Amino acid sequence: MKVLATRNKSTVAPTTETAQKNDARKVYANALAWYYTGDVKYAENAINILNVWGTTFEGFPSAEGQNLLQGGWIGSLLGPAAEIMRGYSGWDPADMAKVQTMFRDHFYPVLNTASTWNGNVDLTQIDAMMSIAVFNDDETEFNLGLQRMEARFPAYFYLESDGGVPAIGGDGDDINKFWNSPTEWWMA
After folding, report:
1. How far, in Å, CA of 78 to CA of 74, rounded?
2. pTM > 0.70: yes or no
3. Domain boundaries in the chain?
4. What pLDDT, on a 0 to 100 scale, did the predictor assign at position 151?
5. Closest among 36, 37, 49 to 7, alpha carbons compared
6. 128 and 76 in contact (C-beta within 8 Å)?
7. Is residue 18 classed exposed, middle or buried when 0-12, 13-18 and 19+ CB atoms within 10 A define those classes?
């Protein structure tokens, strides 16, 4: 197996959305490669990226809701990667704690602010919330993610026995606008 792409030698977390997505993909791919092959070079690649984020990431700039989506995209990859790497004995516990603090200080604020754009952004945020909460051993945050998911369920999984039109828990509670004015509803 060829070594997966490593991060550039910068010692600062990226600030642009594209660079952040690239870092997140690299750390997740390397974490998976390490998990399935046991090859330490993948673990070191993943840990290097996580440690840079843990010590230098300062948050997402507010950008009319784009920061909420960005936090979801990035967190839904960094969170699971960090959880996978928790099993790597070469990750210094002090560095791991810095990554947990970074998640609490810089991801939770954007993830805990539900997007009003649409349910897909909210679901992405929920995915990141719950993944990061698992790594952080944060039952409160995990339960917040579950509550948001339960509020979203009727808009995605609606039963006729639920009665009436589902309240969707976001998007102005306008189910027709949410689903782009459907002409017919199918219920299970």
Report:
1. 6
2. yes
3. 17-178
4. 81
5. 49
6. yes
7. exposed
